[in-house]
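Reviewer 2 asked us to include a model.

Predict the structure of this chain.
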Amino acid sequence: MARLADYFVLVAFGPHPRGSGEGQGHILQRFPEKDWEDNPFPQGIELFCQPSGWQLCPERSPPTFFVAVLTDINSERHYCACLTFWEPVEPTQEAVCTEDAAGREEEADEGGPVRLPPAAAVPPGQLFAPKTLVLVSRLDHAEVFRNSLGLIYTIHVEGLNVGLENVVGNLLTCIIPLAGGSQLDSVEDGVRTISLGAGDRQVIQTPLTDSLPISRCSVALLFRQLGIANVLSLFCAALTEHKVLFLSRSYQRLSDACRGLLALLFPLRYSFTYVPILPAQLLEVLSTPTPFVIGVNAAFQAETQELLDVIVADLDGGTVTVPECVHIPALPEPLHSQTHSVLSMVLDPELDLADLAFPPPTVSTSSLKMQDKELRAVFLRLFAQLLQGYRWCLHMVRIHPEPVIRFHKAAFLGQRGLVEDDFLMKVLEGMAFAGFVSERGVPYRPTDLFDELVAHEVARMRADENHPQRVLSHVKELAEQLYKNENPYPAVAMHKVQRPGEASHLRRAPRPFPRLDEGTVQWIVDQATAKMQGAPPAVKAERRTTVPSGPPMTAILERSSGLHGNSARRLEVVRNCISYVFEGKMLEAKKLLPAVLRALKGRAARRCLAQELHLHVQQNRAVLDHQQFDFVVRMMNCCLQDCTSLDEHGIAAALLPLVTAFCRKLSPGVTQFAYSCVQEHVVWSTPQFWEAMFYGDVQTHIRALYLEPAEDRDPAQQVGEAPAEDERSALDVASEQRRLWPTLSREKQQELVQKEESTVFSQAIHYANRMSYLLLPLDTSKSRLLRERAGLGDPESASNSLLTSSMAGSVAESYDTESGFEDAETCDVAGAVVRFINRFVDKVCTESGVTSDHLKGLHVMVPDIVQMHIETLEAVYRESKRLPPIQKPKLLRPRLLPGEECVLDGLRVYLLPDGREEGVGGSVGGPALLPAEGAVFLTTYRVIFTGMPTDPLVGEQVVVRSLPVAALTKEKRISVQNPVDQLLQDGLQLRSCTFQLLKMAFDEEVGSDSAELFRKQLHKLRYPPDVRDTFAFTLGSAHTPGQPPRATKGKGPSLRTLSRNLMKNAKKTMGRQYVTRKKYHPPSWEHRGQPPPEDQEDAISVSEELEPSTLTPSSALKPSDRMTMSSLVERACCRDYQRLGLGTLSSSLSRAKSEPFRISPVNRMYAICRSYPGLLIVPQSVQDNALQRVSRCYRQNRFPVVCWRSGRSKAVLLRSGGLHGKGVVGLFKAQNAPSPGQSQADSSSLEQEKYLQAVVSSMPRFADASGRNTLSGFSSVHMGGHVPSPRARVTTLSNPMAASASRRTAPRGKWGSVRASGRSGVLGGDVGSRLAAPQANGAPPDPGFLRPQRAALYIIGDKAQLKGVRPDPLQQWELVPIEVFEARQVKTSFKKLLKACVPGCPAAEPSSAFLRSLEDSEWLTQIHKLLQVSVLVVELLDSGSSVLVSLEDGWDITTQVVSLVQLLSDPFYRTLEGFRLLVEKEWLSFGHRFSHRGAHTLAGQSSGFTPVFLQFLDCVHQVHLQFPMEFEFSPFYLKFLGYHHVSRRFRTFLLDSDYERIELGLLYEEKGERRGQQACRSVWEYVDRLSKRTPVFYNYMYAPEDTEVLRPYSNVSNLKVWDFYTEESLAEGPPYDWELAQGPPEPPEEERLDGGAPQSRRRVVWPCYDSRPRAQPDAISRLLEELQRLETELGRPPERWKDTWDRVKATQRLEGRPDGRGTPSSLLVSSVPHHRRSLGVYLQEGPVGSTLSLSLDSDQSSGSTASGSRQAARRSTSTLYSQFQTAESENRSHEGTLYKKGAFMKPWKARWFVLDKTKHQLRYYDHRVDTECKGIIDLAEVEAVAPGTPTMGAPKTVDEKAFFDVKTTRRVYNFCAQDVPSAQQWVDQIQGCLSDA
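Predicted model (structure tokens):
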């Protein structure tokens, strides 16, 4: 029984003590005056009576009523029913208020807040103050409160003749039953009728069950106000502990909405802040960090705006606003959609009928109260479905004295299949669920509707899922029960309560609410209390029962993933494999293992594995031999590796007893258990796992305590599995025990409590042992634990201990300090494990009520346990190292180059897939070759992996992957799973700039020290201290890795002074060698059969007349200088200058006046510019001493020099570094007059001007024009400050804005219009499209468009450099500022390209990921810019203007542009010899910094790899693709150079300039030495040697046009990704070291013509394994190979392929002539538009037949055969005819079956023979319809046809005369016909054929 009301309070308006405008509430009276003992008076009631603040009102308002809820410190709710009415203000109050109002008006004038209407103006009688009657109760009977307070108000207003004191007294003494009408004896007890003594009567119905909430209509109203989706999201928000705020103008609505929301959460109770009506003064509560459900008056909406993490529900507007930062997890599907549809059926029953043709006339709609219950029923069902089976995951940790229950969250989520579900995870972790477990987990208690539902109705709900009507009827049934609970006796609900009359509040009240007599009320209360004490206490008789558990749980949604759908078969495989292992059939097991490891990805298979292994333990076969042990461990590891941290519950829990059961004997007395091999998994270091396991085991043992021995059969019963029928679950046992507990004697109770406590204690000891097993690594010296398991390392992260200042910490600390460990690391591991176990012990023992003595004992024990285990492990570790290793595949030795030595022998590793499609098979075809098992070798030149695929089903292909050590760009340690036994292993990922990637996991036998040594040695070889330690230098010399490095130079050669040292060096390096000096010819010249230029010495004579030089103080060249000179003369670039006609070696003007340019030796000692070559081309008119001054204006002293001259337009191409600031000032800046004393800078800029003038003058077409302006006049105009200068003409190529501006200022010619037309871009828009407006796709423009009066010289410079410049006023040169990228951009772009092409880990969607990252890298954009600028320069040169390229320092992008321009303009550079000269001249002589950009030595390590040269090669490759007939070299040549310019195998691409190469004696060493067959040091020499042997560098389609200037398309859409970046073959590694790529020699091909065994030379080619071009060579290579083979067979020395090829071409040309159609090349020009002869067909790619005619007349195009020379082609290819024709189209003169005797020792066979008179050959096939010819006898070789004799094995039944022999030059063929006539016929036919010939 309980009091209906605890307190009655009267609260009235009073002035604010601080005199502010607002009033405040004052309690006038409260009854009873002293607090009840069991229920103190709640504080702060006056705030809640007027939540918006106490204010006076100018008119009477009608009375209001609402119920506020207060929560006390014990989280008890107090319901405050407030009825407020208004009374006129009393005079005293009035005075105060008038003052207040006046004060408030003043405030308003000052801008203060005004809440009240200006009341001072109103006559005093018109102000009204609020007064509130409050009833405080712990019961929620809002209607009764409303009636009771209404009655009191009515009595007061209507002036009824009833004492208010009596009414209040009766109200306070009214006693009603708490709950449970059904449990009481009669209706009278369940329904209480009360009267307050004013002739009234009220019926109070108490709910049947206390636990079900009472909602009246609040839920239905909430849905009406907000709608389904909004309520659902509020529901999820409240469950997942978000903050929810309701807004409304009505207080009653606010409290209803909050009540409704909480009713929906049943059976969970909301345990956070709950304030349905929040007073204005307490609004700051909204910024509390904890979750809440709060209602606030809508008037304060503005104050709620700045709350960032609060979900606001506006009840009046029907909206729910969720802030951006808040994520509300949704209900898991399919529950969400099902709930949604059922809710819509309940709320809108007409929805289903809306489409009916004949809708029923009326639809029965439920009353609001009933609809409310239906909505609640939907949510009740939802919870039953969500929490179904929750009781199977409860752990009974203790039964007595009080039940202790834990919920196994992981098991619940795992078995429901909802591990990933965000919503359920959050709900289970929340406070509400914790309360649910402690309240509802109890096994013996009263049950309610939810318990019944979750236990018995789940099956029904599952069956009804797809039947909406059945679902609806179930909802209605539940709703009935809920309704009955709230209104158990609807019949007796009759109220009779007086109400005030209509508009009674407007009548003037007779008097204010009277003061009640405290004595009277108190007397009534006291009377009632005395009577209550006399009566016996009414004990609420609870009907407690055992709570039903219901059926075991099922997954909420059966997710059968397609991958593991056929699980029955998989489980069979797992079972078979395990039985093979235990039967010792290891070979069978090994075959099945890969399949088992794949199957273990599925949960069913993992379960199955655990169960199968359990069976084997029970038969006591836990001691295994080594192989069995290994298999079992591998399977366990695989199982554990795929589990998430939550799904572990089933697998890890099942394996935990097994890992301590399976073991192997290592030696007498030393046993290794499986746990030491499965420690690498996260699950073992998660405290939650251990807690759940511990509680599960405790439950099992406690259950066993109370069961009869007969019942206790399976102590290790699996968590969450249904027990057999006759077994009672732990909950049942607990329920029984709780029922009996009160009946037991005190001693018996004590005994049970002690037994339980010691059970828990013994389990804690057991678990301390178990944990030390799994946490201490086998090799305890490794501090791996701390690194990898954060949970163990830092106590905070894992500490969820209940003891804040736990003993664990202190004990562990003392252990660490006193244990006397010498080895700090071990101590760390042990200490971490001790701390982890102590925290665990603390938590579980405190929660399960272990006594503190026991707990102390445990803390003392733990360090001993750990220490003991460490000692055991030391012996195990020692012995396990001695084990003979399991038979692993033999290590395959790699093939090494001559001179390459092994530095580190093979370390066993696994090569893992790295995301390249080619490498892993997959999309390209063929099985997955990776992961592969093998070894990694480190040599002086490469890192090499050789091995075999781990998957035995793939086959025994040897997988090779290697990369040059020098090309390594990134090396990082990784931690990866070993693909065989799934252990975490240390690994290494090596990425190289040759686009190779080695992602390796070290085998467990490789110690960490070996791996570290490997890394160190690799680093040492990658970055040697000096360039002389690289492979190219050490090659052939005895090299040991431990050699001390040579003494490094002081600051590097570029900082030395030259005066002394260069002389010494020149003598030292060259004096000895050049005594017997020979002429230097590159070998390729000789073998091309060109006569060596004998007159070289005369053509470029070394001038002996000395100019007055600033450099050589001596009067004559010293002998060493002269030697240097003659060496320089023989350099490659000199030969090229000679070819281009660029001058003599004289500086005096007496010689060769006609020559505009001369070769100046001014830099022969590298004094002017270190990075330039010794001989330079400069204008004839410039003296050498002026060059020194000119060079100062340019960066790195790289002044403009000529590097190429156009043969047609005589325009020259110059290159230089960018301008220095000071030079620019003098040359171009605005008109500030110089000071009289000219500085050196000014003089040098004058020189610079003169120099440019000289360049212009030396161009024939501009010489006369420039002769007129003397330079002095020019400079005075230029320098004079007062002369108005003409407008600057700077051609910009940047953004459209600038372009249009320049169009306005310089409108003449096509430049202007063209400039503005392009799109903007980084390089200054699209140069191509800017130069040629009509062509959109980056096509080159017509050469004739440039404006008529062009500048003589265009200077292409950096936009940044040429800012604010003034050009030459005579308009002889023009500036073209462009925006180019810098070297560092190339570097970053290349990094991204490398990541795109060799990603390192497989991508989710490889194709799109590759394209996306390729675009991000911007590599193709840079290539596009380079081609664009180059085409621009080509156009300018072609039109007769000279161009100076002056970008950055002149050695990166300048070199790229200049080289590309020459390649596009001059066909010579597109030959093998020319390309070599181009690279030697522009890249090597002009000082591209190969060592610096390639980070060759330790010094360059920080700068990283910048592939400027590779980018140039990529550009050449793009041009090659577009013009395949213009290049003599093949694409392979470019890849070869791309690979070897970083590989450091050759010395060619080492060092940064000629100067450095001379210093090291590299440049001329090969002259004097008699060189034997030693390794090539120069890449060119290697190319020449190789070219003689094989046509691998030659392009058969080479058919050049002599005058052709190439203009490639440069748009990104026209560019292709170079296959050098993406292709690789695992068969041989990179194919660029030709000696290695050749592979083992193939067995000689058997003769085709002798029958015998099948000798088809077919082989399988895997796209991801074999190199396709090698396995399937193009037609011509194939024919050349065939020719060589035939020549060898005939005993002739094989002819060189080049000679053969040239001969074939020559005959082809001759055959092409007689047709009278002109030469094919002229046809070609007419037939191919744009002079662009790109071919669609590639030799390597096309089918052999189609390209044959094309390839044989490779000096013409494919058009030539089409246009007439078919006959000629037919003649020359007649012998090849048969290979490319099918059998059907053949010419068959005579055919039939003959027996043929095979070669020596081969049998006779019947074959189908065809005699072909057209082709003059006898062919044979297997049978008549066979299309593939098995052999051919060429009749040209037949010498005679004679009768034969039968030999051994001949057909028996045939006449002797049917035998005949055919004798050829090579052998005799024996034939046998079926009878004599057919034999005769064959002989006649063959002889007839011979005589025809």
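The longest strand covers residues 77-88. Residues 852-882 form the longest helix (31 residues). We have added this to the supplementary material.
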